[in-house]
Write a structure and sequence with these properties.
By secondary structure, the protein is mainly alpha-helical. 57% of the residues lie in helices and 2% in strands. A hairpin with a 2-residue loop joins strand 1 and strand 2.
Length: 548
């Protein structure tokens, strides 16, 4: 998408991986944050992304990308958290088809977003808030790699892209929690573990990490914490929504959406000023505190202990093979792989986002505090994009949305060439005003262009394996966002764009902008998607829970 190279520099397609989130968030554009177009995108609760048998497919709002959001990854998310459990005939199934244990919990008289509050609802709110506020580290990562490790734009893009690997294997995390309980629990124990992993990763960044290799490990631990906890909390959201009327279910999703947005706005507001005043390691140390909220949320989850079993390792491996076999069996259908291939290509065009971040900071002199304000504007504009899509565009045919979104993104995205060539000054527009305006417009367009991806993904999921296949599709689309960053990093290196040499940045940005149009050659693949839900053979619906 042409909206990727944002003037603020900090948002990159990798952010979308971080979330979704952001993931997706995640699970979009630029160089430091928010999710994979790649970014897991925050989706309004009233947007219907598909259907379960006999009704509307439930989804939770939030990829953030996670930078997944994507997004740590989550969230400029705006990460949109997608439901990882499936609803069949009114019952919730986990990724292997087993029924989720009914959540019990005492509700109080307090309501929030129209949702009666209970310990589990507080847990849900905490985890989604963390998916948003973890974005506090987004700018710090960019400045740390640039100023303290003295890496160039191509090396920075590579490290931040590889660190999003946990967002590419989301079905694995769902399978692991369903099949291998820890201390008798499938959700609570893993949430506690996710909190500890995230705290370890960011604490390491705050103290002893001093090389690109160790920074990569620490960033990956941070992504793993958010990606895994996203899968876990989504399953709890679905269990809570089961059996509720549509209004209550929608209110629950609005609560999720609201807490991600709150966390994202808070982190955007403080991120730049904290870096400027206290430095990046202080910001990493502050970020390390937030995963502890995930660990704390685990104590609020109402989950029945799973009896100990004698299942062997071979039995678990057999289940995993059966699950992956189902995914590949379904994916071989043309009406599924063809549209999925288009979206992968749509996500995978090269991005100049990280190079733009270096240009904005080293050449234009944008300070961390100003870039923090740009991130704040981006978070608010993203909400505007979601509202615009939900209010006026959600019924526009997907093919038309993809086509015009790409064309508009290419035209408007080319305005960054004015900034690179300094023509904005000749037009009487200061660099900061140009950056803020460009960010607002492109962020709204980026959200409007990404939400159809989620709609199409839901349409592709056959009945019987909805959750598993949806998670697999999100991983594929996140992989497109990571590919975008890899290609951008390669072009940046080949063209000799470095931290202090921007002679070929105009050419780099121009190539990326033109490449955004290339997926249109395959846009007819979208027509292969069926409007009605497909189904799989009865034999494929077996849960795969054979005992060894």
């Amino acid at each position: 998408m042409a909206t990727r190279a944002r003037a603020g520099g900090g948002e990159s397609a990798r952010a979308r991986v971080e979330g979704s989130s952001a993931r997706a968030r995640l699970g979009r554009s630029g160089g430091g944050g928010g999710g994979v177009r790649g970014r897991r995108t925050l989706v309004s609760a009233s947007i219907s992304l598909g259907r379960a048998r006999g009704g509307t497919r439930a989804r939770s709002a939030a990829e953030k990308e996670s930078e997944g959001r994507v997004t740590d990854g989550a969230s400029d998310r705006t990460s949109s958290s997608i439901v990882e459990a499936e609803i069949v005939d009114g019952e919730v199934l986990d990724v292997m088809g087993r029924r989720e244990a009914e959540s019990s919990g005492v509700t109080s008289g307090t309501t929030l977003f129209g949702v009666p509050m209970s310990p589990e609802v507080y847990a849900i709110a905490l985890v989604y808030f963390v998916q948003g506020v973890i974005g506090l580290s987004r700018l710090a990562k960019d400045f740390y790699l640039k100023d303290e490790l003295h890496l160039g734009p191509s090396e920075t893009a590579m490290i931040l892209s590889i660190a999003q690997t946990p967002w590419l294997v989301k079905p694995l995390w769902g399978f692991l929690s369903d099949s291998v309980p820890i201390f008798g629990y499938r959700r609570k124990s893993y949430l506690l573990l996710c909190g500890a992993i995230g705290c370890l990763g960011w604490s390491s960044m705050a103290t002893w990490v001093d090389s690109p290799e160790t920074a990569l490990v620490a960033f990956t631990l941070g992504s793993l914490s958010i990606a895994f906890s996203d899968v876990l909390i989504d399953s709890i959201v679905v269990a809570k929504a089961r059996g509720e009327e549509q209004g209550v279910s929608g209110s629950l999703q609005s609560l999720c959406w609201g807490f991600v947005a709150l966390g994202s706005i808070v982190s955007s507001y403080f991120s730049g000023s904290l870096i400027e005043t206290y430095g990046t390691r202080f910001v990493f140390g502050a970020t390390a505190m937030f995963p502890l909220l995930i660990a704390g949320a685990s104590t609020l989850v109402q989950e029945k202990s799973v009896p100990a079993t004698t299942r062997s390792r071979d039995g678990v491996i057999g289940d995993f093979k059966e699950m992956t076999g189902k995914i590949f069996k379904v994916a071989k259908r043309r009406e599924i792989w063809a549209p999925a291939l288009f979206v992968f290509l749509y996500q995978a065009t090269p991005s100049a986002g990280t190079a733009m971040f270096y240009f904005n900071t080293n050449e234009l002199g944008f300070t961390p505090e100003f870039l923090g304000r740009v991130s704040l504007l981006r978070a608010i504009a993203a909400l505007g994009g979601v509202a615009l899509y939900n209010g006026y565009l959600k019924r526009v045919p997907l093919k038309k949305m993809f086509f015009w979104g790409t064309v508009a993104g290419t035209v408007l995205g080319s305005t960054q060439l004015l900034l690179i060539s300094r023509m904005n000054l000749e037009l009487g527009i200061s660099d900061k005003v140009f950056a803020l305006t460009d960010t607002a417009v492109l962020t709204v367009l980026g959200e409007v262009s990404f939400l159809p991806v989620l709609v199409l993904a839901a349409k592709l999921c056959p009945e019987g394996v909805e959750a598993t296949f949806f998670a697999a599709l999100m991983s594929l689309f996140n992989a497109g966002g990571v590919t975008s960053e890899f290609l951008g990093a390669g072009l940046t290196k080949q063209l000799g764009v470095t931290a202090d040499n921007f002679d070929n940045l105009f050419l780099l940005a121009s190539i990326c902008i033109v490449c955004n149009l290339l997926p249109l050659a395959a846009i007819n693949l979208v027509d292969e998607a069926k409007d009605e839900p497909t189904s799989i053979d009865e034999g494929d619906l077996e849960s795969g829970t054979k005992k060894a």
